[in-house]
Amino acid sequence: MTFTLDDLTRILEEGSGAPEEVDLASDILDLTFEDLGYDSLAMLETASRVEREFGVTLEDSTVIDANTPRALLAAVNALIPLPTT
Protein backbone atom coordinates (compact mmCIF):
# COMPACT_ATOMS: atom_id res chain seq x y z
CA MET A 1 0.00 0.00 0.00
CA THR A 2 1.24 3.46 -0.85
CA PHE A 3 -0.17 6.83 0.15
CA THR A 4 -0.41 8.80 -3.09
CA LEU A 5 -1.10 12.41 -4.02
CA ASP A 6 -4.53 11.29 -5.26
CA ASP A 7 -5.21 9.81 -1.81
CA LEU A 8 -4.09 13.02 -0.13
CA THR A 9 -6.15 15.35 -2.32
CA ARG A 10 -9.23 13.14 -1.87
CA ILE A 11 -8.79 13.15 1.92
CA LEU A 12 -8.25 16.93 1.96
CA GLU A 13 -11.40 17.49 -0.10
CA GLU A 14 -13.48 15.06 1.98
CA GLY A 15 -12.33 16.48 5.31
CA SER A 16 -11.92 20.17 4.64
CA GLY A 17 -13.24 20.90 1.19
CA ALA A 18 -11.37 22.22 -1.80
CA PRO A 19 -9.94 25.72 -1.77
CA GLU A 20 -11.48 27.95 -4.43
CA GLU A 21 -8.22 29.58 -5.47
CA VAL A 22 -6.13 26.41 -5.94
CA ASP A 23 -6.64 23.52 -8.32
CA LEU A 24 -5.66 20.43 -6.33
CA ALA A 25 -5.20 18.56 -9.61
CA SER A 26 -2.34 20.90 -10.56
CA ASP A 27 1.31 20.55 -9.48
CA ILE A 28 0.92 21.13 -5.74
CA LEU A 29 3.59 18.80 -4.34
CA ASP A 30 5.87 21.58 -3.11
CA LEU A 31 3.30 24.21 -2.16
CA THR A 32 2.74 24.61 1.55
CA PHE A 33 -0.59 23.54 2.96
CA GLU A 34 -1.04 27.12 4.10
CA ASP A 35 -0.59 28.31 0.49
CA LEU A 36 -3.16 25.70 -0.54
CA GLY A 37 -5.63 27.21 1.93
CA TYR A 38 -5.48 24.57 4.67
CA ASP A 39 -4.97 25.67 8.27
CA SER A 40 -3.75 23.63 11.23
CA LEU A 41 -7.23 22.35 12.06
CA ALA A 42 -7.65 21.10 8.50
CA MET A 43 -4.30 19.33 8.76
CA LEU A 44 -5.26 17.66 12.04
CA GLU A 45 -8.47 16.43 10.40
CA THR A 46 -6.43 15.22 7.43
CA ALA A 47 -3.96 13.41 9.70
CA SER A 48 -6.82 11.71 11.53
CA ARG A 49 -8.33 10.50 8.28
CA VAL A 50 -4.95 9.30 7.00
CA GLU A 51 -4.39 7.37 10.24
CA ARG A 52 -7.77 5.62 9.99
CA GLU A 53 -7.46 4.79 6.32
CA PHE A 54 -3.80 3.74 6.24
CA GLY A 55 -3.37 2.28 9.72
CA VAL A 56 -0.53 4.55 10.75
CA THR A 57 0.00 6.84 13.73
CA LEU A 58 1.15 10.36 12.95
CA GLU A 59 2.76 12.37 15.73
CA ASP A 60 1.62 15.99 15.92
CA SER A 61 5.19 17.08 15.21
CA THR A 62 5.21 14.99 12.03
CA VAL A 63 2.08 16.71 10.78
CA ILE A 64 3.46 20.15 11.68
CA ASP A 65 6.87 19.48 10.10
CA ALA A 66 5.37 18.02 6.91
CA ASN A 67 4.17 21.36 5.59
CA THR A 68 3.93 20.35 1.92
CA PRO A 69 2.13 17.47 0.21
CA ARG A 70 5.49 15.97 -0.81
CA ALA A 71 6.70 15.98 2.81
CA LEU A 72 3.45 14.50 4.14
CA LEU A 73 3.45 11.76 1.49
CA ALA A 74 7.02 10.83 2.46
CA ALA A 75 6.22 10.85 6.18
CA VAL A 76 3.15 8.64 5.78
CA ASN A 77 4.77 6.25 3.32
CA ALA A 78 7.70 5.80 5.72
CA LEU A 79 5.21 4.51 8.30
CA ILE A 80 3.27 2.12 6.07
CA PRO A 81 4.62 -1.40 6.53
CA LEU A 82 6.16 -3.02 3.50
CA PRO A 83 4.18 -5.98 2.15
CA THR A 84 5.56 -9.38 3.02
CA THR A 85 6.03 -11.96 0.30
Task: Write a compact overview of the structure shown.
The chain is mainly alpha-helical and 85 residues long. 56% of the residues lie in helices and 0% in strands.
Report on this structure:
The chain is mainly alpha-helical and 85 residues long. It is built from 5 helices and no strands. The radius of gyration is 12 Å and the shape is globular. It starts with a helix and ends in a 6-residue tail after the last helix.
SSE ordering: HHHHH
How large, in whole angstroms, is the Cα Rg?
12 Å
Q: Please, what is the average pLDDT?
A: 93
| Estimated helix fraction | 55-70%
Topology of this structure?
Blueprint: H1 5-16, H2 33-36, H3 40-54, H4 60-65, H5 69-79
Helix pairs in contact: 1-3
Key attributes of the depicted protein:
85 residues; 0% strand; mainly alpha; 56% helix
